[in-house]
Amino acid sequence: MAFPIPEPYKWDESFCVFYSQLDEEHKGLFDGIFACAANRGDKGKFDDLCKKVSDHFTTEEGMVDGNNYENTASHKEAHKEFLTKLNGLSVPLDDGAVDYAKNWLVQHIKGIDFKYKGKLG
Ligand code: FEO
């Protein structure tokens, strides 16, 4: 099942995983994608998004690793696939790239990140 894409593209409480650092980072990813969608040719904003994504995955993987969380391997694989796709894009971003990133983040948080809710730390 596909979760709806918020419009405007902003984090809201339906995306809450209830770990403050992860929720803050997820907000930053929504804002980063929003900024790239509004400034398709801005390489600085795109590079900033790529760094935020990479940093977030590092944080999140560090948290799931220490917690005996059963879906770690497939979760990491999903992260790696997105980073590879993201790093393969170039500015100016086209509609397909923007839609892909918007959709990926929504489906990933609600479909995969949500599985660790209540199980970490
Ligand atoms: Fe919050 Fe698995 O990325």
TrEMBL record:
<dbReference type="InterPro" id="IPR012827">
    <property type="entry name" value="Hemerythrin_metal-bd"/>
</dbReference>
<feature type="binding site">
    <location>
        <position position="113"/>
    </location>
    <ligand>
        <name>Fe cation 2</name>
    </ligand>
</feature>
<dbReference type="InterPro" id="IPR002063">
    <property type="entry name" value="Haemerythrin"/>
</dbReference>
<feature type="binding site">
    <location>
        <position position="75"/>
    </location>
    <ligand>
        <name>Fe cation 2</name>
    </ligand>
</feature>
<dbReference type="InterPro" id="IPR012312">
    <property type="entry name" value="Hemerythrin-like"/>
</dbReference>
<feature type="domain" description="Hemerythrin-like">
    <location>
        <begin position="19"/>
        <end position="119"/>
    </location>
</feature>
<feature type="binding site">
    <location>
        <position position="26"/>
    </location>
    <ligand>
        <name>Fe cation 1</name>
    </ligand>
</feature>
<dbReference type="InterPro" id="IPR050669">
    <property type="entry name" value="Hemerythrin"/>
</dbReference>
<dbReference type="Pfam" id="PF01814">
    <property type="entry name" value="Hemerythrin"/>
</dbReference>
<feature type="binding site">
    <location>
        <position position="113"/>
    </location>
    <ligand>
        <name>Fe cation 1</name>
    </ligand>
</feature>
<dbReference type="InterPro" id="IPR035938">
    <property type="entry name" value="Hemerythrin-like_sf"/>
</dbReference>
<keyword id="KW-0408">Iron</keyword>
<keyword id="KW-0479">Metal-binding</keyword>
<feature type="binding site">
    <location>
        <position position="60"/>
    </location>
    <ligand>
        <name>Fe cation 2</name>
    </ligand>
</feature>
<protein>
    <submittedName>
        <fullName>Hemerythrin</fullName>
    </submittedName>
</protein>
<feature type="binding site">
    <location>
        <position position="56"/>
    </location>
    <ligand>
        <name>Fe cation 1</name>
    </ligand>
</feature>
<feature type="binding site">
    <location>
        <position position="60"/>
    </location>
    <ligand>
        <name>Fe cation 1</name>
    </ligand>
</feature>
<feature type="binding site">
    <location>
        <position position="108"/>
    </location>
    <ligand>
        <name>Fe cation 2</name>
    </ligand>
</feature>
<comment type="similarity">
    <text>Belongs to the hemerythrin family.</text>
</comment>
<dbReference type="GO" id="GO:0005506">
    <property type="term" value="F:iron ion binding"/>
</dbReference>
<feature type="binding site">
    <location>
        <position position="79"/>
    </location>
    <ligand>
        <name>Fe cation 2</name>
    </ligand>
</feature>
